Amino acid sequence: MVPTNPRATNTCQVLESLARFDPSKVERLRLTGGDLMLQSGRAVRRVLSPMKHLRALMIFRCKNVSHFIPTLDDINMCPELEELVIDASADGERLDVRYLMSMAATRASMSVKLKLVRIICRDKFLQASALQLKEYVPHVESTLRAALATDDIESGDEEE
Predict the structure, then answer these.
(1) Each residue of 63-115: pLDDT tens digit?
(2) Which is nearest to 118 in space by CA: 80, 90, 144?
(3) Among 41, 43, 87, 137, who pairs with 60 as Cys (CB 3.0-4.6 Å)?
(4) Contact, 15 vs 33, CB < 8 A?
């Protein structure tokens, strides 16, 4: 899902539109641009909650990613989520690894453990900090490669 105007902060509006359909069978979701916590994140929760089969969530160039991450603490929120990819290079944003650590620990304790967390960033401190996630997530990648942001999207078999 990509907002029609990349500078707009309407990610939550797009998600509200998606919530009108049956998102329960969605397995891969890519969010690009916008503010994930607009309206306190209610739209994000409303659309992710029925996504019981979501296995991969990719977040690129979104604002408030750190404040969105605790949404995934809930055992009922995307219980089959295995892969989380975050592009931590949004303008003026800094990803707080503590939120990721807390979420990963909570999910692991509830037996809905993530298998892969990939963080795309240029911040070497963030890259090093992200490796702490290995305590809760078997496969952690932290990379400078911006090309990863499009690698998973070009497969052509997913809808945006």
Answers:
(1) 888 888 988 988 888 999 999 999 887 666 788 899 999 999 999 999 889 99
(2) 144
(3) 87
(4) no
Token pair recorded at residue 75 = 């055992």
Q: Which of 3-7, 22-26, 31-35 shows the lowest per-residue confidence on average (mean pLDDT)?
A: 3-7
Beta bridge partners of 83: 56, 116
* 3-state SS record for 38-104: HHHHHHHHHHHCCCCCCCEEEEECCECHHHHHHHHHCCCCCCCCCEEEEECCCCCCCCCHHHHHHHH
55 closest CA partner among 114, 140, 119: 114
What is the per-residue DSSP string for 109-158?
HTT---SEEEEE-S-HHHHHHHGGGGGT-SEEEEE--TTHHHHTTTTSSS
Phi/psi of residue 35, each to 5°?
-115, 115
Q: Is the pLDDT of residue 123 over 90?
A: no
Which residue type, as a one-letter code, is found at position 29? Answer: L
**Of the segments 46-50, 66-70, 152-156, which one has the largest average pLDDT value?**
66-70
Contact between residue 160 and residue 11 where contact means Cβ atoms under 8 Å apart: no
Q: Determine which helix (DSSP H) or strand (DSSP E) holds 31, and give its type and residue range.
A: strand 28-32
